[in-house]
Amino acid sequence: MDPYANKSYWPMGFGQLTLTGIEEHYELGVWLRKRYSGWLPEVYSTEDIYIRSSDYDRTIMSAEANLDGLYPPVEPKKWNQLIPIHTVPKLQDNVLAMSEACPLYSQELEKIQNDEDVQSFYAQFSSVIKYIFNNAGATMEEKSKPIYFITTVFQALTIESKFNYTLPDWTKRIFPEPLTTIAIKNYELSTHNNIMKRLKCGPLLKDIVTHMNEKKHGSLNPNRKLWIYSGHDTTIYSLLNTMGINNNLLVPYAAVLMIELRLNNTGNYVVTVSYRNTSIHDPYLLQVPGCDSVACDLDQLTEVLIPFIPNDWDTECKINVKNNTSELLIFFLGVISAIVIILILYAIANKRILHYGKRSYYYTF
Question: Where are the transmembrane segments (predicted)?
Fold first, then answer.
């Protein structure tokens, strides 16, 4: 049983943003302000930025804390700038919470969970899973959903460890390993094949690709500079996996993925993808498979991502599995925390030199 499943240990409530989380997200906002200083105006305007969050207290509060750092008070005003955060109900959210019902996706997930290779992976940890069930007090219903239960146990131990709580002795056998390895597999299953990637991340990718191409062609209205999406560790993990740039590590608290549209010195629009998963290291510059370089031509990136963007998500979710798979293949060939906050930003930066490790990437705008 979990000795810390008591509200006295979590004054903000179960599943809510902690004071430590608020501080981390505020500091991330300060870091983003420094990154975009001189390009993103210091005073908020709806013409510059749009913020969307999943409909959870913790993700909305994470976005608020981040925005306090990104948009500090400006003289002569002494109070924080008020910035709207947009959201939709959880069960209607196929972009960030990714929890809107999709029958085809559910069937694909069930099929993958019964896949021989997947079953073989979990079989090697059968004694570990049984050990967790027995010591964590799993109910019969929870045992019937082992992937969900094991992930929940992992998340609980992770946050308790972060707060320096003494973990029960029984957890020493399984945490951080091999529980972390099992948890990573649990996260990976959500976007295990191309159909699942398309249905899970397609709506979010559609937003990103559409806005970038509208920016390029001068049809973006309002002509904003920045979009911020505040979601979950599962959101960013699924996106990294879909784009082929997953590092097979879990997403830490206050991680940020930045997708930035740039105009290079030859007049071409290129996209860079940077991942900041720690405050003690510069963001990692990632190269999307199928792109010729880390500064990927926008048209090339669009072509790479199109197979994962559904034309009509609702229709693809509802049609028969066999027929749907066939149509998807034709389409592919035809177009040859909380504790966690996730920010996906894309913009046209202004006279910026990026330094990553020993490499520097220069862009003129």
Answer: 328-349
- Bridge partners (DSSP) listed for residue 348: 261
Residue 198, token pair as written in the block:
């398309």
Which residues share a beta bridge with 263? Answer: 269
Quickly list H helices, 90-222.
103-113, 116-123, 126-136, 140-143, 146-162, 179-188, 194-217
Q: Which two tokens mark 319?
A: 């049609």
pLDDT higher at 116 or 337:
116
The structural domains of the chain, with segments of one domain joined by +, span: 20-97+194-362, 99-190
Q: In the CATH scheme, what is the homologous superfamily, with its name and number, of domain 20-97+194-362?
A: Phosphoglycerate mutase-like (3.40.50.1240)
Helix (H), strand (E) at residue 275: strand 269-276
pLDDT, tens digit, 9 for 90 and up, residues 241-256: 999 999 889 999 999 9
Q: Which of 278, 280, 207 is nearest to 239 (CA)?
A: 207
What is the average pLDDT across 280-304?
95
CA dist 47 → 87, 223, 226, 313 (Å)? 18, 6, 9, 29
Between CA 264 and CA 362 the distance in angstroms is 8
One-letter amino acid for residue 45 of the chain: S
pLDDT at position 364 is: 28
Peptide bond into 76 cis (omega under 30): yes
Q: What confidence category does residue 3 fall into, taking pLDDT thresholds of 50, 70 and 90?
A: confident
The residue-averaged pLDDT of 281-290 equals: 94
Structure tokens at 228: 């911020």
DSSP state for residue 80 in the 8-state scheme = P
Of the candidates 255, 257, 294, the residue with the CA atom closest to the CA atom of residue 272: 294
Task: Please give the structure tokens belonging to residue 285.
Answer: 């510059």
